[in-house]
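During the no-cost extension, the postdoctoral fellow (Dr. R.K.) reprocessed legacy sequence entries with the updated structure-token encoder. One reprocessed record is reproduced below for audit purposes.
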Amino acid sequence: DAAVRWGARVLYVQGDPEAALRIFELVRQRWTKHAGKVELPWAHFQLYRALAKTRRARGDDWLEAREILADVVEAADRTLAFPPENPVIRARRWRAEIIKSLALNTIGYLDRQQGRYLEAVDRYRDSAMLQRRLGMNILTSTLVELSYAMAMTGQFHHARLKAEEAERLAQRRGQVYLLAEALNARAFLEGLDHHYQVALRYADRALEAAAKLPGHRVRGLSHLARARAYRYLWNSLSEEERAREAGLLDAAVASATQAAGLLRSSPAERVGALLERGCIYRELARWRHAEGRKEDAAEAAHRSQSDLERVTVLAGALNLPRQQSLA
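Re-encoded structure tokens follow.
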């Protein structure tokens, strides 16, 4: 338990998955032979080891994390198979439910990033059900992720309800980080549902909330949401409207560039930012060509190709087939 806390602190407070994995590897080498005697603490340890691999996202990290998490869920289910006949077993069951909810949440994240949206919805729903019953603060984050996954399957009404609940919970609990994430999720789904101005308003609110935070990830996601909303809005305009709103594409490029820079330590999200910027440059190249500015069009096309080629390589390394195929 002490080792898990130590590694988790390095992972979340210092934001260093590599250092956390070194700690976890020392623990694994020392305690593997005792794993059968301390199954639930061992499952808790394995959970955080998988989380660190998910954050590092190098080589086979995600494949290994998925295998570890499946074992964690099985270990939790074995504990939950015991009837709650005394306080000791009830305490173990309570801990097993917490561990299972976190494992399902992380499997849902992997499913969503790898384009398995229906599976992600199921994982997040099961995780949220446990977290709601246990009164866990992480429910806010799970609702945000569930909203993203539902939006990708076209369930916009339900996605909106989940994002609204996440926003209310974050405000009530003073979770500024999660408030920004909930607003990002709302911006994302409103863009997909063709409410582009609404999406921009939520992206701006997310940026305002994220400005109060020390880290880069949420600000990066907020800039990404705004860049995407700008592009969606641009694609909805007529030729005459585009002539009046030509600055939209420049604003979109600026937001996407900000996102790519801020998301350097979040590989999967950075792939999304580079993909978005590549798409924006593609639209910019088309518009510059239509304006007769052939040199500017060629430069934008080159930048688009460069970003999309980088996405192809990075997405392949991370096993992100949807992003790779889109690029």
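The CA atoms of residues 77 and 180 lie 34 Å apart. DSSP finds 16 helices and no strands in the chain. The remaining legacy entries will be reprocessed before the final report is submitted.
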